[in-house]
């Protein structure tokens, strides 16, 4: 990579006291095929950052075009060091790229911003200054507080999706996100000392959410900003990114065993749909209802297995072959059915329970056993 070292740092006479004693800042920019935006971005960062705020820019690039070369060339005209980390095997998408940048950063403060100029570089010094002044560990640039707006979020559809996702996310993490009006923002400043890189498991676009939930900065503050139009090129977000976001939410929300068990139960409940559909189809085709029920049950098991693999335990598939996991999962699911009847008999005969409460207790017992078994025998924590 190319880098140039600034020949003069920290001359307060150049920029009068607009920022009280700033620390140094590393600006992390994830890029995916943004060659047409690089020059303008670096030019505006150069204009925005005063000489007394020591600054470096780290691009984390997953491009398939010539973006890294464009960055290296543009870097030669910059008064601060510019680094390109190109990833040959991109993991975690946008969020994974940002975490690489966080690890490579050397300054006290890290500002994360997009490479397409939807995030105004002029705000960088203010984000850092606000953090220094307030003592906060995280400063979020928000579209949803007084003075901010989402002008660059084109179309009613995208606005509605963004609002719905923000609402859902804030309801899932009421405590962690209590001081954050815009947890979906991709523009923020964070103290390097707050970042706990080893516990992060980024997946896709919402890296701020990941940091707020897993690194848990003690104090958070916000600065309003106007989300601009893209300077050049197109958004890299796809429908697949939406599904990734849901997986990310489930992963973040199921850090505790109780939360995992609840999601396990919810997924199990959805298994009734394929189960009943299968039963309907098989009996309609003339099959006796007993074998039909047994076969249809396997359909529900397969459905649950897919959801559990891809939503709940995606990080914990371990070294076993997928067919080994399917086998164990199916065994547990069917053992659950076989175990239920003797359990009910036990509760009724030995403990004198009524049939209804015995059935309810047996359902809960086999459910908990099945969850514990699934964690212990298939997806080790
Ligand atoms: N390295 C890397 N790898 N960079 C990526 C990847 C990736 O897989 N995907 C996207 N980027 C880069 C883009 O090149 C751009 O610099 C930045 O991440 C944002 O990508 P966009 O595709 O422009 O995102 P957006 O405008 O749709 O979404 C932005 O605004 C949202 C709020 O509406 C992002 O900041 C989101 O995080 C934010 O929620
Ligand atoms: Mn963008």
Polypeptide structure, described:
Belongs to the glycosyltransferase 2 family. Residues 26-195 form the Glycosyltransferase 2-like domain. With 381 residues, this protein is an alpha/beta fold. 49% of the residues lie in helices and 10% in strands. The protein is built from twelve helices and seven strands. The protein has helices at residues 38-48, 67-75, 93-104, 124-134, 156-172, 207-214, 239-253, 257-270, 272-284, 289-312, 322-351, 355-377; strands at residues 25-31, 55-61, 82-86, 109-112, 138-142, 188-191, 220-224. Strands 3-2-1-4-6-5-7 form a seven-stranded mixed sheet. α2 (67-75) links the parallel β2 and β3 (82-86). The longest helix has 30 residues, at 322-351. The chain starts with 24 loop residues before the first strand and ends with a helix. The relative contact order is 0.10. The structure holds guanosine-5'-diphosphate-alpha-D-mannose and manganese (II) ion. Manganese (II) ion binds next to loops.
């Amino acid at each position: 990579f190319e880098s140039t070292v600034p020949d003069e740092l920290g001359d307060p006479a150049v920029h009068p006291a607009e920022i009280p004693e700033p620390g140094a800042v590393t600006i992390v920019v994830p890029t995916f095929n943004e060659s047409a935006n690089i020059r303008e971005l670096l030019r505006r960062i150069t204009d925005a950052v005063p000489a007394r705020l020591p600054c470096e820019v780290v691009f984390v690039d997953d491009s398939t075009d010539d973006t890294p070369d464009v960055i290296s060339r543009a870097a030669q005209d910059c008064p601060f060091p510019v680094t390109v980390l190109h990833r040959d095997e991109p993991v975690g998408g946008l969020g994974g790229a940002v975490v690489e940048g966080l690890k490579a950063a050397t300054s006290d403060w890290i500002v994360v911003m997009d490479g397409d100029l939807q995030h105004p570089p002029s705000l960088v010094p203010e984000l850092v200054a606000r953090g220094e002044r307030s003592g906060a560990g995280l400063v979020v640039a928000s579209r949803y507080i007084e003075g901010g707006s989402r002008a660059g979020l084109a179309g009613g559809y995208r606005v509605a999706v963004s609002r719905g996702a923000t609402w859902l996310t804030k309801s899932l993490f009421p405590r962690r996100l209590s001081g954050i009006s815009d947890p979906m923002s991709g523009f923020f400043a964070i103290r390097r000392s707050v970042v706990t890189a080893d516990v992060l498991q980024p997946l896709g676009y919402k890296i701020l959410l990941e940091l707020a939930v897993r690194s848990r900065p003690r104090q958070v503050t916000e600065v309003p900003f106007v989300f601009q139009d893209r300077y050049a090129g197109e958004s890299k977000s796809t429908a697949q990114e939406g599904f990734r976001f849901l997986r990310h939410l489930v992963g973040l929300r199921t850090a505790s065993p109780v939360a995992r068990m609840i999601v396990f139960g919810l997924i199990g409940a959805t298994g009734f749909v394929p189960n009943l559909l299968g039963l309907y189809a098989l009996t309609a085709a003339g099959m006796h209802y007993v074998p039909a029920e047994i076969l249809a049950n396997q359909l529900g098991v397969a459905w649950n297995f897919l959801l559990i693999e891809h939503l709940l335990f995606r990080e914990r598939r371990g070294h076993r072959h997928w067919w080994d996991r399917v086998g164990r999962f199916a065994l547990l699911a069917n053992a659950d059915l076989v175990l239920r009847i003797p359990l009910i008999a036990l509760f009724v005969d030995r403990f004198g329970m009524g049939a209804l409460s015995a059935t309810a207790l047996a359902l809960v017992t086999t459910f908990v056993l099945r969850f514990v078994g699934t964690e212990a025998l298939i997806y080790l924590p």
